[in-house]
Specification:
heterotrimer, A: about 325 residues, alpha/beta, C: about 300 residues, mainly alpha, 16 helices, globular, disordered N terminus, membrane (chain C)
Amino acid sequence: MAACLASAGGARAQSEILNVSYDPTRELYREINAAFSEEWKAKSGETITVRAAHGGSGAQARTVIDGIPADVVTLGIPSDIDAIANLSKKIPADWRTKLPNEGLPYTSTVVFLVRKGNPKGVKDWNDLAKPDVKVITPNPKTSAGGRWNFLAAWGYAYERDGRDKEKANAFVGSLYKNVPVLDTGARGSTVTFAQRGLGDVLPTWENEAFLVLEEFGKDKFDIVVPPTSIYAEPPVALVEANVDKKGTRKQAEAYLQFLYSDKAQAIFAKHHYRPIKREAAKPEDLAQLPEIKLFKIEDLQGSWDDIQKANFDNGGLFDQLSKAGR
Amino acid sequence: MVETLKPRRRFRQRSVIPGFGITFGYTLTCLGLIVLLPLAALVVKASGLGLSGIWEVATDPRVASALRVSFGVSLLAALTASVFGGIVAWVLTRYDFPGRKLADAVVDLPFALPTAVAGIALASLYAPNGLVGAQLARIGIEAAYTPVGIFIAMVFIGLPFAVRTVQPLIAEIDKEVEEASAILGASRITTLTRVVLPPLIPAVLTGFALAFARGVGEYGSIIFIAGNLPYVSEIAPLLIVIKLSEFDYAGASAIAVIMLAISFVTLLAINLIQAWSRRRFGYV
Amino acid sequence: MSEALTQGPLSPPTEAVRLPASVVTERRVVRWLLIAVALAFLGLFLVLPLLTVFAQALAKGWGAYFTAFAEPDAQAAIRLTLLVAAIAVPFNLVFGVAASWAIAKFEFRGKNLLVTLIDLPFSVSPVVSGLIYVLVFGSRGLFGPFLVEHDIQIIFAVPGIVLATIFVTFPFVARQLIPLMQEQGTAEEEAALTLGASGWHAFRTVTLPNIRWGLLYSVLLCNARAMGEFGAVSVVSGHIRGLTNTLPLHVEILYNEYNFVAAFAVASLLAGLALVTLAVKSVLEWRYADDLAAGARRH
């Protein structure tokens, strides 16, 4: 190991790091990576290539566990990084403490994308459970976005019905009865909804909803902002075991720090993510992000271990609901 | 090898042709390293659950339903491919019409076309706003994102097997047997069902089994066009991928082993059909 | 072959009896009906999807079409796909020839089992084909600790993609050659050897000419499959852009980036490859039908 470190860590004018990320961040990291390469070149004189791999958040975590040489992970939900820490020890269990704001350089939330003119009159989460509404959402087992949608719906009903777990479970059950297609990733769902024309409403990452408007045209879809939604936390972490082996710790750490820089924060806002340093972003980008009352799922359900186990693990709430709903 | 231990019977018959040792050894080495070792790793992983554990996975409602979808739809698709494949094979060998050679060449398309390409093409064709999908929607059939979509993809990949196994046999049918049958007073229908069809049955079964085996395992073309809905349109290979994303390696391996066992039985059945047909009809 | 039979001594004197056409073939209307059914079926299930690929690829004109290939990621995917096929296909070629030589030219026990095992990858789900290599070479797999210690990357790198590709195309050449070689028997080789030829010489001058078209045909199909494999490669690739994405994976990525024209453009490249494969194959069949017959039957 020491030999590897020495050989790989030697002074090179060129290096490469790999960012394993989740599905909807493709456009975001294309810009971030270019900006970082430029800054790193100016700072250290070294040419750096940041490679990116995208896919469903769970599937991506799996590749890290199985040995993809990722230097950093930027995933859709904290439990996926916990899984890497638990199953492979490549990331320390206390990864949340290593970076500012619990490893969250930006946050996001879930909004609704509907067809132009909102023909079904969708305004809030309860409209998604109405019998004549078809909802397109990804599989919460494989997709981080799918899990945020699930938890957002649950949290909404929990607060609405006086913090009654059973009622919240039942609400989520009736919502998922309205789902005709469960894609494996957020992107698959968007394609199903936007390109293939299925469904009336697509609850999705805020950034993804804006992207659809840009890609498919504002004349085809509207964004509906529900009064309350979830505080979605897509965290980042250093894959310590890999960077030590590859000798890329310096570059990878700099990359993660860069995500908290003013420049990166402005790029997040530009791509409709919610930067943690609002002052670094352009006002017109911020103006696009609507005011929503956001709740934190940890406040309702406890630790991420509990949240994952209760809802998405084998035999969890989602399994029970899909068994009951068939 | 068990065989070499028996002293009386030789493992291999004498031959003047050289190269048995090296080619046989090379074959076994490749087979062992590329195919058998990784498959053994799979069985080992799954056996960590024990037989009862594998049974538990297999009977888990979601897994059972995915297996049912994969095997059930594949059975239907293989049946459809066999019936229409039989007609296609018959038409291509027996009749002459303009464009016959072109049609013949097209049959192999699913062999050569990557499954992912087939998947996105079928999805855009059969989606509600697609060329065919819109027509189907008008008569109330939802094709894409339902089990019908899975069926379409499976027919697509299974068709060449159904055609290509039967076609050479139709070409080899001795026309004079048909003539003899006609001279003896049989109607055309009788000749077809009593004289022509029976020798084709093993080939039809082989084609059916191949299409079936291929359909059960198919992934690339299906995920684009199936709705991937648990209990409705979720196929077994997708469930393996999902289990992997949940870090449930043993569960994924268990489903894989179940599918593998069924594939192996299917293959064995094909070889038995061929052996039987060799005895019964003198050809495969 | 049927020609040989009809000229055989047992043929009845057919000239004596004049049969109306309707008893040896179907009535005209039935014939055309069947042709229509067959063509409609082929059109709907095979031709239409193929046309869709090209239609969608050119939906925004040739400019947009060619832009798809200017992308560095697309070019990296093309290079990787060629590299993988350049390793996997020759490997399976050598394996297929060796295996069919051992199986077709010699009699030994357990042959049927061996043939079935060679066939096995063919009926294994592509996803399972990828999974098994993860279980062997993944960090937590069979050889995981060893590989990690020695810093060897198999899965999520080129070797893993090559291995998975070899696995899914494993039976292609052998499957085609075994029946061909069996049909041709051993007499010719034996004669050559008796006349003093070396084994290698006999193979090159006697066996190879007999099987060359079958060989070419199987290599073509093997190549098409190797370049087009999706499921197995998807499990072991890791989807690193510009590094471990093959063409089919690149198609999926573009498709998921709402870049449908580019997705279908890259797909059309693979579809074009499929068409070339079919064209060469058809020409071979029309010209050398007899040489291929034995193989096609067992395909």
